[in-house]
């Protein structure tokens, strides 16, 4: 039997959910494989309508979803409502991308004479890989769980999804699944388009099931390694797209510290303590110059931290890790600077915590990600020290620079130095709050995620697709999008990108 | 010291090449990392000019390259000249793709109000991953070796390359490297843009070097697994793009057998014996219907096989494997049908060989790839038998269907059944001879290659790129292609694909 725990109180309760048996996992994956074939024949417009229906269904279940998630995650209703809106928006955005059709990367090379002699007709397009297993995170019950980017992008691609319910929010997972399932059925999607399994063993079995063709994962490096080890036992490797830990360095230049240290302290405080610091894009290292302006920024941030109340962490494991990691950071030489007020009661609470070190001292040990409201101020004497220090720590999803307009050359050099170490470069803002849009990239380089793809934004769909080429195919065999008479999507024809005419 | 062997005679000779020491490997990889930074700042047009210069340089060294490769591979001058032309063409094609700029997947989402509230400016583009290690194949000294698709696509992406010289053609590798190096220097490319290492240990060390960011490989499953094991010892995983074994089933429908069995026998014979059958796209299984028409096709192919002379295999290992695999196939139940004439002398020669089995008997053991002039005819009673049998054997780079115009429905169903099992579907042709073009796909489902990418065609460049997003970046920090005033490449602006205006 599966239990659920309210992290605000530490009180557990039984649910009527059961762990999925090995036989059930196999049956669910097999049904997903059957759905993959049917989905393919239903085409893009059907899938777009299904995604739109799912977006509507999320709104219909909003109240129940938010209240369930509140008591399973301790996240605020405001945050959860925003997250649900984001997931609904994402479904609609992906529906529009599927309709637009560029994601297919359709290309036609007609037969003809070439510098290498006569060549056959070759046409290429991306097709869905097949059923996808999705492992969501504890901290995003609606954005990276049974609802969210991985599921939406896989369905958009045409891949059925089998989600693993998160152990920290099983009831939210179940309700999310039921909401998606009802929406899928309402438009006539094949049974097996969306599935769910419960329990860690079921999850491990899922990624070794022969019908699963790719895995999406958001969570810790350790959990990812366990899943990858299971995947490695398969006779055939399958892609694993993992969005793992990230330390997210933020650099304040001397100019920025001099010009607006109070504003940056406030922004940084909000960014590192929002959602109790449980965001993969939370700034974990803040590089602040030595000297008076930097001192002012650090003491303003320390003062905001000291005055703050405790936040609620998602579960007892994360709560336990917070203290353990803080201990390791202090052991490695970090100095305690500030700590907010402790909360009373049995909940998994922790006060915002600020440590300090220097750029010359910074090591991989001092850059361990602490999932929760923790930030390490890193004092530096020169930008060279910053660049060297960032080269010594693991790479990240993001890197952020705060600077002033008259530091243009410094910022260009710094951005070029940071680019190999991060997937997204943020200027005069904060890395938390990831825009869901066409141009977004949330990933790369390792360990921030698999190097070459994103888990947020329209191009997240590319992870669940593989190319197929057709050589001298009769028109009846070709997908509609590759026939000469289809002018509805952008295609590359004989090397030239051609926009649709209708 | 490194030796070279002429497979036509089995005679070995010394070279003045030396195995690369561990220190030299590290220095070469470090120089490549330095070149990566310099290449980035030189921009796309510079790289396109470098690729064009390399294409010209190949022509300049044509005679020497072909004669060197002839004596190291036993491939004919005609075949080698064609292969060299293909590699030169490919360099020019990639240069045009780099100039065109779509490969960057540039996208701009301007800041503004959205259904989720105000959002920042986000811009995305692909950037080179960094130095790439390339391991070429024995059978394509110019198309998949120090010259060829992996090297050309990585350089096109902006990634310096360190190639491992192939043990079967070290002198060809050295001359290829010198040709590329001279061309790179002639346009002022940074030192380290192209490098080479010699010896298996140097290759293993190369893929574990911290400066290497991705690996391209063309060769056997066994060699790939050894390299992947070495890569797995790295603290950070890097992408491995392997183009491995492939059995390439070909299906002759009843209609096609009845209409043109002699022509298909001739085409099939040429396809399975060309380059002595040493092509990853060689049809290894030919499904032929039972009955008189199929009997006629099989006996015509057997007769061509019986009459044929021996081919020269690339090296003693491949020659030894041929006999071993033939033995395993017979052990597994395949029946010998035809065998060409043996050659005299000490060369690594083997006559074309034809075996036979049935669709109901076909197993993974009977579908082992034999690298050389070997084909297994698979007799079938119904298309259902064919589909079931293909489901039992490893997946492939290609699948081919020969049919007649009045079998449209049968062919559409068959193509849909074959699609999950192959990267390229060929109709009324042969899988050997891979067009180098925009729409080509040479890859797809494991073990044919890494699932999601190609090693031939323009999109091969995508393997060596990763996305980066810039949020609220000052124009001076952005790559030229992401600035508002750059209208030279296709970009997606606020969700709309916009073609260049100049």
TrEMBL record, chains A, B:
Pfam families, per database record: Aldedh
Superkingdom field: Bacteria
Domain Aldehyde dehydrogenase: 4-437
InterPro entries cross-referenced by the UniProt entry: Ald_DH/histidinol_DH, Ald_DH_C, Ald_DH_N, Aldehyde_DH_dom, Aldehyde_DH_Superfamily
GO molecular function: oxidoreductase activity, acting on the aldehyde or oxo group of donors, NAD or NADP as acceptor
Protein name: Aldehyde dehydrogenase (NADP(+))
Species in which this protein is naturally found: Cnuibacter physcomitrellae
């Amino acid at each position: 039997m599966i239990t659920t725990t309210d992290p605000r109180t530490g009180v557990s309760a039984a649910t009527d959910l059961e762990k999925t048996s090995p036989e059930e996992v196999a049956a669910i994956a097999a049904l997903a494989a059957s759905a993959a074939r049917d989905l393919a024949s239903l085409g893009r417009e059907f899938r777009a309508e299904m995604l739109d229906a799912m977006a509507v269904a999320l709104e219909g279940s909003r109240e129940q979803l938010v209240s369930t998630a509140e008591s399973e995650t301790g996240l605020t209703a405001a945050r959860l409502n925003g997250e649900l809106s984001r997931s609904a928006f994402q479904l609609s955005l992906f529906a529009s991308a599927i309709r637009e059709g560029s994601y297919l990367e359709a290309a036609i090379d007609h037969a003809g004479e070439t510098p290498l002699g006569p060549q056959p007709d070759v046409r290429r397009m991306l097709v869905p890989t097949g059923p996808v297993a999705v492992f969501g995170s504890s901290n995003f019950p609606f954005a990276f769980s049974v609802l969210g980017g991985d599921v939406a992008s896989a369905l958009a691609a045409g891949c059925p999804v089998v989600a693993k319910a998160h152990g920290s929010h099983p009831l939210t997972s179940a309700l999310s699944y039921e909401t998606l399932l009802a929406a899928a059925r309402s438009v006539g999607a094949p049974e097996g388009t969306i599935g769910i399994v419960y329990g860690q063993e079921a999850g491990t079995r899922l990624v070794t099931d022969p019908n699963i063709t790719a895995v999406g994962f958001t969570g810790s490096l350790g959990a990812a390694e366990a899943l990858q080890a299971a995947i490695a036992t398969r006779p055939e490797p399958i892609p694993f797209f993992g969005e793992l830990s990230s330390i997210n360095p933020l650099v304040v230049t001397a100019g920025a510290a001099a010009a607006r240290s109070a504003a940056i302290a406030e922004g940084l405080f909000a960014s590192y303590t929002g959602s109790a610091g449980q965001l993969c894009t939370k700034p974990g290292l803040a590089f602040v110059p030595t000297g008076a302006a930097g001192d002012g920024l650090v003491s303003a941030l320390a003062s905001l931290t000291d005055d703050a109340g405790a936040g609620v962490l998602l579960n007892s494991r994360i709560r336990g890790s917070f203290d353990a990691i803080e201990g390791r950071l202090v052991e490695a030489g970090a100095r305690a600077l500030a700590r907010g007020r402790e909360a009373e009661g049995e909940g998994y609470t922790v006060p915002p915590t600020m440590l300090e070190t220097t750029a010359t001292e910074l090591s991989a040990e001092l850059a361990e990600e602490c999932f929760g409201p923790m930030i390490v101020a890193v004092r530096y004497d020169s930008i060279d020290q910053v660049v060297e220090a960032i080269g010594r720590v693991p790479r990240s999803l993001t890197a952020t620079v705060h600077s002033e307009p008259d530091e243009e050359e410094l910022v260009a050099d710094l951005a070029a130095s940071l680019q190999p170490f991060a997937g997204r470069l943020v200027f005069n803002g904060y890395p938390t709050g990831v825009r869901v849009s066409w141009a977004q990239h949330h990933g790369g380089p390792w360990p921030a995620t698999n190097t070459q793809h994103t888990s947020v934004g329209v191009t997240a769909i590319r992870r669940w697709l593989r190319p197929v080429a057709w050589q001298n195919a009769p028109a009846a065999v070709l997908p509609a999008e590759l026939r000469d008479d289809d002018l509805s999507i952008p295609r590359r024809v004989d090397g030239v990108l051609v926009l649709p005419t209708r």
